[in-house]
């Protein structure tokens, strides 16, 4: 069976959509506990409600941004799917800030590359969001690379194999 860029894109979007909400809630809850300890029950309930609401907004943002970007021609795509997820950390960041969670200490390079990610939530790899994203992420990347190489060969910019 041959994998097309279109099918790989659809599978990746579906997998990311299934993982995003849980990941964004986990970002809030885990960071709160790491920075401030286990919250009191009344605070935990409010925190969880805020995290879930924010995660749903983040999931909607990710779905829209992925669909918009990945449905463009490969030569017009400027943002990759992992970057869309990195941008989505703005949602849990707002919740954490609203609950007075102090920023984490990050290394200089990380702080310079992602200055708004004050809690260090941005995923470096698919598995930082969810392990189930690794395979569709790799397949999508390979399918996109194949499409780009094929196009460059057709344009005469690369030697044919």
Regions with little confidence, pLDDT below 50 for 5+ residues = none
Q: How many extended strands?
A: 0
- Structural class, by secondary structure, is mainly alpha
Shape: elongated
Tally the helices: what do you get?
6
Number of domains: 1
Largest sheet, if any?
none
| Helix content percent band | 55-70%
Give the percentage of residues in beta strands.
Answer: under 5%
In short:
With 161 residues, the chain is mainly alpha-helical.
Give an overview in words.
The protein has 161 residues and is an all-alpha fold. The chain has one domain (5-154). It is 65% helix and 0% strand. It has helices spanning 5-36, 41-70, 81-87, 90-98, 108-113, 134-154. Helix 1 runs antiparallel to helix 2, helix 1 (5-36) packs parallel to helix 4 (90-98) and helix 2 (41-70) runs antiparallel to helix 4 (90-98). The protein is elongated, with a radius of gyration of 18 Å. The two termini are 21 Å apart.
Tell me the layout of helices and strands.
Blueprint: H1 5-36, H2 41-70, H3 81-87, H4 90-98, H5 108-113, H6 134-154
Helix pairs in contact: 1-2, 1-4, 1-6, 2-4
Q: What attributes does this structure have?
A:
mainly alpha; 6 helices; 161 residues; single chain; elongated
């Amino acid at each position: 069976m041959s994998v097309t860029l279109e099918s790989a894109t659809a599978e990746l979007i579906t997998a990311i959509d299934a993982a995003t909400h849980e990941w964004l809630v986990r970002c809030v809850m885990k960071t709160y506990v790491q920075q401030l300890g286990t919250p009191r029950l009344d605070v935990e309930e409010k925190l969880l409600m805020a995290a879930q609401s924010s995660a749903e907004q983040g999931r909607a943002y990710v779905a829209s941004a992925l669909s918009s970007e990945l449905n463009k021609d490969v030569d017009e795509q400027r943002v990759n799917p992992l970057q869309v997820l990195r941008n989505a950390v703005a949602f849990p960041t707002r919740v954490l800030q609203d609950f007075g969670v102090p920023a984490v200490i990050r290394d200089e390079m990380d702080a310079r590359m992602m200055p708004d990610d004050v809690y260090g939530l941005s995923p470096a790899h698919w598995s930082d969001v969810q392990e189930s994203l690794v395979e569709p992420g790799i397949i999508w990347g390979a399918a996109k690379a194949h499409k780009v190489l094929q196009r460059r060969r057709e344009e005469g910019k690369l030697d044919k194999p």
